[in-house]
UniProtKB/TrEMBL annotation:
SUPFAM superfamilies: Thioesterase/thiol ester dehydrase-isomerase. Residues 48-119 form the Thioesterase domain. Pfam families: 4HBT. This is Hotdog fold thioesterase. Keywords: Hydrolase.
């Protein structure tokens, strides 16, 4: 399991993956593979995975792939298409790949599967976050005290 240092730093600050039972298997060179098992806690009334949970898995794979290539990237926009349901007890694997990156922007595709069956396809657009002290009109605490 190889996970690049920028992704390790990101994961150290993210408690959401543990809440959903998501495990990062690998993340590096613009690719990432994440895994989770659908259990009762994330099933809806149809006894299938809630679509939001599949989105969280895909978006987390997006984040790992994008940040392995361009640290500081966050989702700026995304869409997801659901093809087949994921049932309680099924294992899901999300595979992400950076298709394009330049400057502050990236495009990442994620496929979520249960075995060979495609559950969903996600496409995310990423942008590198600006540091809070570089935002137009924003003053740091030190700058505010100087005035």
């Amino acid at each position: 399991m190889t996970i690049t240092e920028p992704v390790r730093r990101l994961l150290a600050q993210d408690s959401s993956l543990a809440e959903f039972g998501i495990e990062v298997l690998s993340a590096g060179e613009g690719r990432a593979v994440l895994h989770m098992v659908i259990d009762e806690s994330v099933a809806n009334g149809h006894r299938i995975a809630h679509g939001g949970v599949i989105y969280v898995l895909a978006d987390s794979a997006f984040a790992c792939a994008a940040n392995s290539r361009t640290p500081g990237t966050a989702t700026a926009g995304a869409s997801i298409e659901y093809y087949t349901p994921a049932h309680v007890g099924e294992e899901l694997v999300a595979e992400a790949i950076v298709r394009h990156h330049t400057g502050r922007h990236s495009l990442v595709d994620v496929t979520v599967r249960s075995g060979p069956r495609v559950v969903a396809e996600y496409r995310g657009r990423g942008a590198v976050l600006r540091r809070p002290d570089s935002a137009v009109g924003h003053r740091t605490a030190d700058q505010s005290e100087e005035r």
